Structure formats: C-alpha cells, structure tokens
Amino acid sequence: MQLSSDSITNGQPIAATFAAGNAEGFAPNRNPQLAWHDVPAGTRSFALLCIDPDVPTVPETVGRQDCTVPRDQPRAHFAHWAMADIPADVRELAAGSCSDGFTVRGKTQPAGPAGSRQGLNDFTGWFAGNPDMSGQYLGYDGPYPPFNDERVHRYFFRVFALDVAQLALPDPFTAADVLRAMHGHVLAEASLHGTYTLNPVLA
C-alpha cells in the first residue's frame, strides 16, 4: 500500500496552511490531502493516525523567551489525528475536508467520510489545565510546536488497511486506543511525514 499527498512532500516542511499555529498565533489548520493506493485484498476499513514523536517532556521549558527546549531533551509522542472505521471504498481525503480552521475548546463534530469515527487528539490533554482552552479536541488539529524548540518536529501520517469493518473502541477514543484495537487486524500500512518548526533560527 502507498500513501501520497498533494499537500505534503515526504520529508519536507509542511505549509502553515496545514498547521494549527504559526508565528502570529493560530494558523488555517486545514487537514492535508491524503490518498492511498495498492490496497490489499480483504480490506474492510482503514484507520488513520498523525503522530509527532518530537514533543518536549519538560513542560516548564516550553514557550519561554529566556531559554530554549534543548535538542537532546527526551521526547514523547503527540497525536494530532486519530480516525477509525474509514469505509473500505474510500481512497482519498481532500484538503480541508476534515478540518478548516482552529476551534477553541475543540471541534465537537469534525467532518469525515460517512461511517468513520474521529478520536481525541492530544491537544485535549495539553490544554486541560487552561480554563480558556480546555475541551475535547476531536479530529485533526495540526502542527503547533514551541517557538523555542531547538528541534524541528516531524509529523507522521499513517494509514492502516484493516480486516474488520469496525474497531472495538471506547467513546471517545484516542490514538492509543486505535493502536490497541487494531492489533492483529492490520493487513498493510503506508506512511509519509512532513516537518514543521516555529523557531526562526531553524526555519
């Protein structure tokens, strides 16, 4: 199976159009166009994840003018998108079809292919202690790395072909729930990644 995008060139910088944040604040936050090909026989649904593996693990260093987030600081995964039960006949998500703009407190009913389910992304936990921003962030919310991070962040879009039409998931569910539920059901996987930074020294 192959994954391609008219919006992202594999391994190259992601345009701010597809990010949640830019140097001025919130960005257009449109989901990128994605298309997958060479789907294996027996596919009954697809799952989609977008993961940033470069997120700082020391929150106190994030977003400060008086210091940077060291490049060698240990990093964690941050889910920007989790979608399950994408019907087997779907082969493409158009740019902006699932997200077009950033919604404070999160999108309550994000768009997606008929029959699909959108999970929580990790902005839910990131903003949990902020009374102005807290909420359930469902669907796609794109890159918004710290401006003081010494590391360029990578964003991996992964599509999985599954041998089940629906995954056994809680409501709401997370990317971790999808990974657990599809164990033993993956027929094929395809991925691509782009990069993004708000650090002017790295841009």
From TrEMBL:
Keywords: Protein kinase inhibitor. The keyword Metal-binding does not apply. It holds the Pfam family PBP. One of its GO terms (molecular function) is protein kinase inhibitor activity. InterPro entries: PEBP, PEBP-like_sf, YbhB_YbcL/LppC-like. The keyword Transmembrane does not apply. It comes from the Bacteria. Signal peptide: none annotated. This is Raf kinase inhibitor-like YbhB/YbcL family protein. The lineage of its organism: Bacteria, Pseudomonadati, Pseudomonadota, Gammaproteobacteria, Lysobacterales.
